[in-house]
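Input sequence (128 aa), recorded before submission:
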Amino acid sequence: VQLQASGGGLVQAGGSLRLSCAASGPTFSSYAMGWFRQAPGKEREFVAAIRRIGDSTYYQNSVKGRFTISRGNAKNTVYLQMNRLKPEDTAVYYCAAGTPSDGGTPYSLRASQSYDYWGQGTQVTVSS
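Predicted structure, token format:
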């Protein structure tokens, strides 16, 4: 699976962006999908995840209520709608695909080790 993330950019605080991650290959619906981010000087952190059939979603507490992850299996794409952006959301955002051995739980989907494939990242910059 190859992943291509897009949609990043520069936005003012309080604004919105929608990230997209397009996946190649016919087995997109077999994968749980996640978004992670990495700010300068910090470790990569979990942002949001969605199970392979889209029945459950999970979020980092700091983005809950502002970000929404969704997927379109017919389009092999996962989205991250980001509203009410804050300067602390500034980071490179990565999408990832994986097949956790436990089927995907709120715990396993937060771990980067659960994902086998990663996109190249897209920069999100939020100005104050």
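Checked by second reader. The chain has a mean pLDDT of 95.
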